[in-house]
Specification:
- The protein is α/β, with parallel strands linked by helices.
- It has helices at residues 25-38, 40-54, 56-62, 65-70, 72-88, 96-110, 114-132, 138-166, 199-202, 249-257, 291-303, 325-334, 349-354, 373-385; strands spanning 174-186, 189-195, 210-216, 222-228, 230-231, 237-243, 263-267, 282-287, 310-316, 339-345, 366-370, 393-395.
- It has a 7-stranded antiparallel sheet, sandwiched between helices.
- Helix 11 links the parallel strand 8 and strand 9.
Length: 407
Amino acid sequence: MSDIVADPVDAPDSAPATSILSATSRPIIEATLPVVGEHLGEISRIFYRHLFDNLPSLESDLFNRTNQANGEQQKALAGAVAAFATLLVTEEAPPVDEVMSRIAAKHASLGIVQVHYDLVHTALFTAIVDVLGDAVTPEVAGAWDEVYWLMANSLMAQEAALYEAAGVAAGHVWQPMTVLDKREVAPGAWTFVFGDENPDVMRNCVPGQYVSVSVLFPDETRQIRQYTVVWGERPDTWEITVEAVRGGMVSTKLIDDVGVGDPLVVSMPVGDPYPIREDSPVVLASSGIGSAVSVGLLQRLVADADIRPLRVVHVDRRPERFAHRDKIADLLSVYRGPSSLHTEYADDIEHAISRLRDGKWDGAADVYLCGSPLFMRKMRRVAVREGVSPVNIHYEVFAPDSWLGFD
């Protein structure tokens, strides 16, 4: 097996992140994509077994155990590998770095460094050989090894840039802060206000970003989740909103056990700030606690004394579930340009979304979405049908199978 599983030390670390698949490897990947794709589910399952056997702390402290248990993490890896390999053999595909930027941001929020890629490489290629056996010739292994390191190099370069921009050493992303306030903003949804004694740390945050929150459990293991971060009403504070999730380890722990005065360990803010163009109308559309993104962008528009046309849309099951309605109303009241708030409520979210095909969309608008993956997919289609260009539709996703984006 050692002559098939390429050694990580041979990885093309110096290759630019925008490199394309070599002429030698491209036909091999095109020919083997169907069979690899057919077995990706099994490969992923065995991959994680090897990975966690080699370093058990990855399972206990880094990976989402809920998604491991329900299989969502395995599907996420399968989707990412297949999508990336397909991208490399697709004519006129978008740049590699652009496609991988969401994954790079999430990795940076977790403190991922090169050793993690070496571990994943070994476990992944061992799993490929376990599943496909003799079909993995040295030539096939070499081609897929090239795919892996093209993906890994793109991610590592972007993650290094994020660490440098934040002024931290690679992987040193965690900051202990103190909970200053905690309030229920909707049934089962709580906003946590927190800060640090160093104001410079707290000013390193741009609306549209998110932080990871690390929670320690009694058995000394930890779990990490991502939450949209916005500026707090008090100077030099941040806010996140946590919604209770059935069976959710972290949301339950935060809501039940973390109170005012308690420590909260969070990462540096990551995620590209939304590219608000200077001359475009703006639509902010959300569902559930995704309205936190609308709050953050409204804060930014108000702080910039913006005056362009602004439309805020929120879809939910019932009015009381609109977690940030009062804050959004307050921000709209001081917004200097023309603005409107449009809400739709229905137990069937798809039905509520269907009511938004009202002809009030400006085709030149930038649209910013945050909510469940279902909501964002449906809203994206509505916006496109209403004349908005797909390139002007922006969103952030935390679901494990969605880091490469939506069609």
